[in-house]
Amino acid sequence: METTEQTCTAFQGMRKIASGTRVEVALALKRAGDTGEAILVFDDATGKQVEFDLRGSDAEIAARLNQSEPRKPGRPKLGVTAREVTLLPRQWDWLNSQPGGASVTLRKLVDAARNANGGRERKRQAQGAADSFMMVMAGNEPHYEEAARALYAGNMQRFTDLTEAWPQDVRDHVRMLSEPAFGWED
User: Fold this and answer.
1) CB 95 within 8 A of CB 87
2) Counting beta carbons within 10 angstroms of the beta carbon of residue 182, is it exposed (0 to 12), middle (13 to 18) or buried (19 or more)?
3) CA-CA distance, 24 to 82, in Å (whole number)?
4) Does pLDDT of 134 surpass 90?
5) Which of 50-64, 139-153, 163-177 has the lowest mean pLDDT?
6) Separation between Cα atoms, residue 167 and residue 8, nearest integer Å
7) β-bridge partners, 80
8) Rounded distance, CA 47 to CA 111, Å?
9) pTM, whole model, 2 decimals?
10) Does pLDDT of 60 surpass 90?
């Protein structure tokens, strides 16, 4: 089970004003107060906008953001969630004949597929996150469409060249989001 904490980044206009965990950013926004200028917050994993309820004390805000989902069937201490899977009878027969049964075998198959496709999946997620962020924050910037095409084509140099004239904080953030798409990360 992955335990990395979600991070996000807040922009006021084209200027980055906070980045960190959801709680850190929410509390930074509360301390900043209402300046009248719109503030947009983006999830760093997806590039999609998120909103925070900044009412109440710091502890109340943190509690809301750290609140876990309602209890569901399964083994919550292990992070297991029960869901329905539809398979053909021959597939159920095969799964049930495997050591550990259907659930263990399905978990192993999913983990093997994730490991085998890890690089492609990280690339796809990075492209999606960068694209979602760019659409909102850079959709009106010069060369936006060409930069999006370069992102999906995997052309790092062209993407870098096309985003160079964008506002610095927006440019730097979209490049950070896109790093796995181009293999810039370790």
Assistant:
1) yes
2) buried
3) 32
4) yes
5) 50-64
6) 19
7) 75
8) 25
9) 0.74
10) yes
